[in-house]
Amino acid sequence: MKIACAIVLACSWLQSSAHQQTGDTLVIPEPLTFDTVYIRALNGKSGNIPFSLSELNLTVAGRNPRTQLMQQLSLLPSVSAISAGGGINKPIIRGLSFNQVTLSAMGTRMDNQSWDDRHDIGIPAAGNTDIQVINGPASVLYGPGTMGGALVFHEKAPAAGEKTNGYVNTGIFSNSIGVNLDAGLRGAGKEHYFSVNTGLQSHTNYLQGGSKVDGERPMAFNSKFTNAAFKGMAGIRKKKRTHQVNYSYYKQLLGIIEDENLEAINNPGKKAERDYEMEAPYQDVQTHVISLENRFEAGRSFITFNAAYQFNKRKEFEPAGTGPKSKFLAVALDLQTVTADLQWQSNPQKKAGVILGAQAFGQHNENFGNWVLVPDARIQTVGAYGLFHWNPGKFNLLAGARLDGHHVQTYVTDIPQPDTFNASFPEPAQAVSRRFIPFSFNLGAVYHLTDPLSVKANLATGYASPNYAQLTSFGRHEGTYRFEIGDNNLDMSQNLEADLGLAYRKNNVKAELRAYSNRIDNYIFLAPTSDSVKDLKVYQWSQHDATINGIEFEFSVRPDFLKQVEWFANAGALRGELRDDNGSLPYIPATKLITGITYHAGNEKWRDFYSTFQFSAYGSQDDVAAFESSTAGYCLTDLYFGVQPPMGKGHRWQLVLFCNNLFNKKYYSHTSLIKSIGVSEPGRNAGLQVGYKF
Question: Where does the TonB-dependent receptor plug domain start and stop, copy by copy (predicted)?
């Protein structure tokens, strides 16, 4: 794969953002809202924002279907995914993940057991219109855990007077014999508006890429998953105030892939594997979120108050015997979270202004299963921040500071069925109380050399306290083939990242080059020891100073002389190391280049025809952590064809034919958790998506 690596390095300047394109024009982002922090303070222009920002338009992304949302996000230069099968994907932003990345939706910070590498992102695409990716530390805006960045989910509310309208989309996927279905209805009067959305995903075990084995394509056993989502929004717009209530329910049944040799023992015939019924081990996760968003106009300033309650019930089932469907409840957790955000913003139309805010976060995690992976715990965070902006002509300045009080409390927790390992190592205390008072800041500037060309520079900090798994774990971590030991004395991780960017945007041309250096003190990671317990390798949670350096570049163009053609690509490269020559960091993605071309055509009968050829190259990854194995590079090819056919009135139908991994390549993602047991990623996947708007 040296050729692929050379292609990536030679072509990295070809980057673009297919996610910001529509069928006819490039999308110019609207004024951005980061939870309660309104970037309208910077005149509503993304080009005035000094920190690194990417965006995924979900409507546009739907024109190139994928099985899962994280597969779409992973096409961005800064984003990758830690995968553990068909339905479990955890985001990585610039080499950081878990509780180092913040998720936000419905105006509040989301948390659904983000400490574990085998927990999914837990936020459905249903109802959301776009996702902003903040690349790099942003603790001033989001508080705890925003060392790597943030994923911010948005739903655009119906416009005043918008007539009731809706849509239905369904897609079928050959590889996993799967179906994705989503539907929505929305509308608005003069002052009131509403939106309702549902989604369903149901997939059997996927087939791995590569040659057939004994006449059959190899299957990824227990990679099946079924997700169901509902989301509703209702709001009132008055002259000087807006009130909105949101509710979301997400039900996930997620298969956990284990060693095929174990599967052969539990299910010798390997029959009935292409059904949709879950079999242990698997996760049953339910998440309820209700939130309130309120905005008041006070003279020429604005006051925003958001509050939310989240309830996450997670159950993990393990096999109870030799039967393929036998199970018993192993780990089970109830996680309740309450958040509140209060913010005051001065007149955003003035060249200079301030934003002042306070945030509160409370969380309680409680066990009710037979096994205890982490003890019962409580977390409280209270923070206050201030942002100052100054926009004198060609120069934009943004500065902010934040102070938090963060408390982690764990408790001695009864274990109904203790493990039988009887390890001789000392166990960390289960009752732990740790307090942290972190200070964060942000200082950035944009200088517009010309109207389309600007230079961006930003310096920002973030922090993440050790989570309760890192502090107290002691025992086998299911699905990981390791025995983990926590450390009660872990310190808070804190980083300082410097970003430098050059951006160009004019008409239908966009280019941006970004480079960053992230210095992390007390980076927390899992390291293998020389010990073992009953054939399980012992791993110890540790920490050491680290550095991550990277480069990202985006370019997109639709030439005036050839407006039927769009050219796009995404590329990124990074490297993470423990300082003092102590080795490489885990979960550092390989260098990647995603590039392609879209051709637009159509006539009065067959409207909005497009065909997209997409090529993705991933370099080999040899700079690996102590417990990781190196990964060879690979290339993938995807094809998409879409059209609005002359069916019914108004061309309301949309048909999309697609094929991912056209050449059925067998490959291993470096950030896959199942490559160590020989399970590769999905092979060829052809499908059809049908949509109807009304």
Answer: 50-150
Q: Is residue 331 pLDDT above 60, yes or no?
A: yes
For residue 298, tell me if it sits in a domain. yes
Query: For residues 147 and 138, what is the distance between their CA atoms, to the nearest angstrom?
Result: 7
Which DSSP string corresponds to 480-523?
A: TTEEEE--TTPPPEEEEEEEEEEEEEETTEEEEEEEEEEEEEEE
183 strand-pairing partners: 168, 198
Within 10 A of 249 (CB to CB), how many other CB atoms are there?
A: 18
Helices (H), 373-475: 468-472
In 129-207, which residue ranges form alpha helices assigned H by DSSP?
139-142
The answer to whether the peptide bond before residue 682 is cis (omega within 30 degrees of 0) is no
Q: Under DSSP, is residue 141 helix (H, G, I), strand (E, B) or coil?
A: helix
H helices present in 65-138, as ranges: 69-73
Which residue is associated with the tokens 């970037």?
39
Is 235 part of any domain? yes
User: What is the rounded distance in angstroms from the CA atom of residue 66 to the CA atom of residue 175?
Assistant: 12
φ, ψ for residue 399, nearest 5 deg: -135, 145
Higher pLDDT: 634 or 115? It is 634
Provide the 3-class DSSP secondary structure of residue 648.
Answer: coil
Q: How many CB atoms lie under 10 A from the CB of residue 392?
A: 9
Q: By the 8 A CB rule, do 429 and 482 touch?
A: no
Closest to 346 (Cα-Cα) out of 334, 355, 338: 355
- Cα 661 to its chain centre, rounded Å, is 22
Nearest CA among 29, 26, 55 for reference residue 44 = 29
Contact 121, 91 (CB under 8 A): yes
Show the beta-strand stretches assigned E in 125-191: 130-135, 149-154, 165-173, 178-188
pLDDT in the model for residue 276: 92
Q: Tokens at residue 587, please?
A: 């979960």
Distance, CA of 176 to chain centre: 22
Question: Domain count of the chain?
Answer: 1
Name the helix (H) or strand (E) containing 260.
Answer: helix 260-266
What is the rounded CA–CA span in Å between residue 185 and residue 168?
Answer: 9
Residue 88 burial (C-beta neighbours within 10 Å; 0-12, 13-18, 19+): buried
Q: Phi/psi at 215 (nearest 5 deg)?
A: 80, 0
Looking up residue 400, the CATH number of its domain turns out to be 2.40.170.20
pTM beyond 0.85: the answer is yes
Q: Which letter does DSSP use for residue 48 in this model?
A: G
Alpha carbons 455 and 447: distance in angstroms, whole number: 5
Q: Are strands 432-436 and 395-410 parallel, antiparallel or unpaired?
A: antiparallel
The three-point CA angle 142-148-150 to 5° equals 45
| pLDDT, tens only, 271-299 | 546 899 998 889 999 999 999 999 999 99
Structure tokens belonging to residue 625: 């952590």
CA dihedral for 548, 485, 111, 494, sign (positive or negative): negative
> Average per-residue pLDDT in the chain?
89
CA–CA gap between residue 10 and residue 27 (Å, rounded) = 28
Q: Which residue range(s) make up the domain with 53? A: 11-209+221-501+525-540
- Cβ distance 342 to 355 under 8 Å? no
Structure tokens at 241: 């105030």
Q: Is residue 565 part of a domain?
A: no
Whether residue 302 lies inside any domain: the answer is yes
pLDDT in tens, 425-462: 889 999 999 999 999 999 999 999 998 999 999 999 99
The answer on pLDDT for 516 being more than 80 is yes
Alpha-carbon distance of 568 to 11, in angstroms, equals: 12
Q: Which residues pair with 33 in a beta bridge?
A: 38
How would you class 658 by CB atoms within 10 Å of its CB: exposed for 0-12, middle for 13-18, buried for 19 or more? buried
